[in-house]
Amino acid sequence: MAGLDEIYRRSIEDPSGFWSEAARAIEWDRFPTTILDDHQPPFFRWFSDGVLNTCHNAVDRHVRAGRGEQAALIHESPVTGTGGQVTYAELQEATSRFAGGLRQLGVAAGDTVIIYMPMVPEAVVAMLACARLGAVHSVVFGGFAPHELALRLDDARPKVVVSASCGVERDRVVSYKLLLDRAIAEAHHTPDYCVILQRPQGEPARLTAPSDLDFEEVASSDPVACVPVLATDPLYVLYTSGTTARPKGVVRDNGGHAVALAWSMANIYGLRPGEVFWTASDIGWVVGHSYVVYGPLLHGCTSVLYEGGAVGTPDAGAYWRVAAKHKVRVLFTTPTALRAIRQEDPRGTHLLRHRLDSLRAVFLAGESLDPDTFRWASDHLRVPVIDHWWQTETGWPVTANCLGVEPLPVKVGSANRPVPGFDVHVLDDRGVPAAAGIDGQVALRLPLPPGTLTTLWHDDGGYQSSYLNANPGYYTTGDRGHLDKDGYLFLLGRLNDVIKVANYRLSPAAIEAAIATHPDVAECAVVGIPDAAKGQVPICFVVLKTGVASDPDAVAIELVALVEDLVGPVASFRDSIVVKRLPRTRSGKILRSTMQGIAAGRALAPPATIDDPAILDEITAALRSHRLGST
Ligand code: AMP
Which of 259, 354, 369, 498 gives a 20 to 30 Å CA spacing to 512? Predict the structure, then answer.
């Protein structure tokens, strides 16, 4: 068998040959004759004349191949004390019936459907039912507040929204239906129907005829077959945070996505069909799309759908209990989750109570993996602990240790080496590739491989200006880092202001927009600062309107509530510091990275462009007295 270097070289030198072979893992209604369509650079398309259906590949074909009785999904829900499994045959039945119901509501190929649901099997059924019809789903994370959902309603303009009466968190039941009603009231676009899953927890949702329908009724419609679509037709839109308050709609196609994910399951995660994969992420994030839902199912694996936390549901042994119970082969989680477990159980005593002999590897992504957490996990789990790096936009890992091809020697602090298909470069400020060991902007040479974003939803121009224009011929990732002499990537953080809180990507602008709605706030700036548990947390520097007599402490409490209400608890916003002025450049731009440096305790020289360096002393003093006050 060819080694990693040879496979990698082939993927870069002969992408059409490489991906044409990989495409054989998928069942096509028409196998593509064009593999890489490069007629309209910088827009590249994969398998452009291929025809397939993603739901067929994720569900129906496995039933036909004899996997009908195998579990497709295992639902583990410590927050509700329930669980169970859904076989491939049951998933086919449920998906084809729900798709039949959606069709009766007018959903056809190309229409959009928003899914705003907790981690329940019905959410996966809703996603697959859209795929079955060739409709485009957009899953919105349940932790988002109505305003964020309203923004997505207006951009995606769904015919139908699929939601639930409630989500269940460790210590509370959240009424999704009430949040959805508020979002619809705020949005300009009104969906034709809302399909609501009534959960036994909490109060049943009030359904208002004729537009609110019960999930079970829609799900008992006559089944429908898979609708063949072009490989290039969109499968889903997933919104992610950029630097502005408006989320970006990342578009994923059908064909490239299916081929890339099937390839990654075997070659990156080293999984065989029939094995159990557990990705402890929410379906509202890309990791959930790719490795709770589509990747495992496309590969005929069993996927664990987990509705709970790393700690507190009920304890720091939850992950090990679930992994042992279901003989999980590969666990994919975040450094934040491992840090939380380690904090509660530093000696790993919970681990001793469970037999984890099925576990082959733990993969981590979403934020950098600090060496302490890496060592703790490696020492206690005694399996490879693998850092891998990717983004909503790329859809699957860009750098990793490809366990299914050839395991790499470990370099602590690195997210490993480029995965076949990804031509990773570090560019200097002029856009020229930097030498090994030199920091710069991490960029991927075009064309990107299959499975990556094809554009932004109805916004080709935004795709180009956000990712392609800065370095012609490259996709700019927005991350900083360097490649070492052996080709290992070391990441150093973001080039822009995007914040990663407990692995969730947040735009400071969205939090600022929420804070700016407070009547006493004149202006504000949100920056991310390091946090031992969550990687980063947002803090806000606030300038109050002159003449405002309110107590700053009371305002700070109101701001926490505002952010929770308008952005959602996902923001983990707690801290605001009242200052007299914000530091600016002479041209008026707020100096966020300087404030971030001060807040993180880094001694920085004031930038040459600063308008009034004295403001930095004011900020330092305000921060000091704020911290003294809060200890
Ligand atoms: P998201 O699109 O929400 O998955 O966020 C993607 C961003 O998370 C990347 O651009 C990185 O800034 C960060 N990220 C993801 N994985 C890693 C990793 N393994 N190491 C460091 N940063 C990471």
Answer: 369
Under DSSP, the state recorded for 584 is B
Residue nearest ligand 1's atom 22 by CA: 367
Neighbouring CB atoms inside 10 A of 166's CB total: 25
Whole-model pTM? 0.91
| Spatial contact of 449 and 421, defined as CB atoms under 8 Å apart | yes
Cα–Cα dist 62/551, whole Å: 63
Per-residue pLDDT, averaged over 242-251, amounts to 87
Distance 152 CA to ligand 1 centre (A): 22
Please tell me the residue having the least CA distance from ligand 1 atom 16: 366
Pocket test for ligand 1, best of 391, 392, 453, 497 (most atoms within 8 A of CB): 391
- CA 365 – ligand 1 centroid, Å: 7
Take atom 15 of ligand 1 and give the residue whose Cα is closest.
366
pLDDT tens for residues 508-563? 888 988 998 999 988 899 999 888 888 889 999 998 988 877 788 899 999 999 99
| CA-based end-to-end distance of the chain | 60
Look up residue 279 and give its two tokens.
């990705």
The mean pLDDT of 105-118, rounded to a whole number, is: 98
Whether 588 has a pLDDT exceeding 80, the answer reads no
Do the Cβ atoms of 139 and 238 come closer than 8 Å? yes
Say what the pLDDT of residue 553 is.
Answer: 86
Domain 499-625 has CATH 3.30.300.30: yes
Specify the long-range contacts of residues 542-545, CB closer than 8 Å, at least 24 apart. Answer: 542/515, 542/576, 542/577, 542/578, 542/579, 543/578, 543/579, 543/580, 543/581, 543/582, 544/520, 544/578, 545/519, 545/520, 545/521
- As for ligand 1, residues whose beta carbon falls within 6 Å of it are 240, 286, 365-368, 387-392, 415, 477-479, 491, 494, 500, 505
CA 543 to each of CA 8, 342, 610, 619, 620: distance values in angstroms, whole numbers, following the listed order: 52, 38, 18, 11, 15
> Looking at ligand 1, which atom is closest to the CA of residue 491?
21
Take atom 3 of ligand 1 and give the residue whose Cα is closest.
505
Q: Is the CB of residue 36 less than 8 Å from the CB of residue 447?
A: yes
The pLDDT, as a whole number, for residue 50 is 98
Q: Residue 81 contacts by C-beta under 8 Å, 6 or more apart in sequence?
A: none
Residue 111's pLDDT is what? Answer: 98
What ligand 1 atom has the least distance to the C-alpha of 478?
Answer: 10
Q: Which atom of ligand 1 is nearest to the CA of 477?
A: 10
Residue 144 Cα to ligand 1 middle (Å): 20
Domain map (residue ranges) of the chain: 4-412+422-464, 499-625
Give the position, in ligand 1's atom list, of the atom nearest the Cα of 388.
19
Domains 4-412+422-464 and 499-625 share a fold: no
DSSP 117-181: --SSHHHHHHHHHHHHHT-EEEE--TTS-HHHHHHHHHHH--SEEEEESEEE-SS-EEEHHHHHH
What is the chain's mean pLDDT, rounded? 94
Residue nearest to atom 6 of ligand 1 (CA): 391
pLDDT in tens, 34-51: 999 999 999 999 999 999
Alpha helix (H) ranges present in 439-507? 460-463
Which of helix, strand or coil describes residue 459?
coil
- Greatest C-alpha distance within the chain: 74
3-state secondary structure 281-332: CCCCCHHHHHHHHHHHHHCCCEEEEECCCCCCCCCCCHHHHHHHHCCCCEEE
pLDDT at 358: 98
Q: In the CATH hierarchy, which top-level class contains the domain 4-412+422-464?
A: alpha beta
